[in-house]
Amino acid sequence: MTEKMETEVVPVDAEEPDPAVIARAAEVIAGGGLVVLPTDTVYGLVCDPRQERAVREIYRVKRRDPSIPLPLLLHDMSQAMLYASEAPEPAVRAMQHFWPGALTVVVRDRSEETAAVRAKKDTVGLRLPAHVVPRLVAGELGCALASTSANRSRQDSPITARQALGEMEGLVALVLDAGRTPLGEESTVVSFVEDPPRVLRAGAIPEARLREVLGEVREG
Fold first, then answer.
1. Dihedral of CA 174/39/59/61: which sign?
2. Is 216 exposed, middle or buried (CB count within 10 Å of its CB: 0-12, 13-18, 19+)?
3. 135-149: per-residue pLDDT in tens?
4. Is the dihedral of CA 36, 40, 41, 47 positive or negative?
5. Quick check: 161 and 178 in contact, CB under 8 A?
6. How many Å apart are CA 130 and CA 103, to the nearest integer?
7. Which of these, 62, 126, 171, 216, is most buried using a 10 Å CB contact count?
């Protein structure tokens, strides 16, 4: 049985976070640790995607099926091109319209940079959240954040730090508490590796809004 660690809980302002708090989170992640932080959708469990051991630890503490990839949270729009080997025009259009926001875009990638999070697939999920905290942490770290909701698999996704602590206390090094997440619902996941785009997971962005921007989209 793995010995539990002490979890540090730090309040953070959702609009004007203390740079020292952002730096602390980036320091923990750079050192191979796991951090729980707020996003616009739900609280996320994040690590450095370049560190295979940290990625494996996310799968372990979440009890996540290792065949399911981990999406990346980006610092800014330009970062998307660092992680995608292909970005079809509909994907670019979706990014421009829905980012920052609750859309995870799945595109092709075969780079070594994303190998640990792709679960042996040739695609990667990318999202630019509409919450300053994960974006600033990613910027401070110098790379995107491997992410998943901060709960055990098949449990409800947390919308407060308290809910996340109920699942993750003793399993992560740091929790940033910014109060309730704005949307309280997971992102919509859309695959752009096929035509028309396919909705892999329903979420905060309704399918009707996707159709307004993209035209035809497929379910499931």
1. positive
2. exposed
3. 999 999 999 999 999
4. negative
5. yes
6. 10
7. 126
d(CA 158, CA 50): 26
Indicate if the alpha-carbon torsion angle 52, 57, 63, 64 is positive or negative. negative
Distance of alpha carbon 192 from alpha carbon 174, whole angstroms: 34
Closest CA to 41 of 130, 125, 122: 130
Contact 12, 177 (CB under 8 A): yes
Rounded CA-CA distance 184/14 in Å is: 15
Beta bridge partners of 107: 124
Please state whether the peptide bond connecting residue 196 to the residue before it is cis, i.e. omega within 30 degrees of 0. Answer: yes
How does residue 117 score in pLDDT terms, banded at 50, 70 and 90?
very high
CATH code for the domain defined by 8-219: 3.90.870.10
b/e code 47-59 from CB counts within 10 Å (16+ = b): bbbbbeebbebbb
Task: Compute how many other C-beta atoms are within 10 angstroms of the C-beta atom of residue 194.
Answer: 10
Report the SS3 class of residue 85. Answer: coil
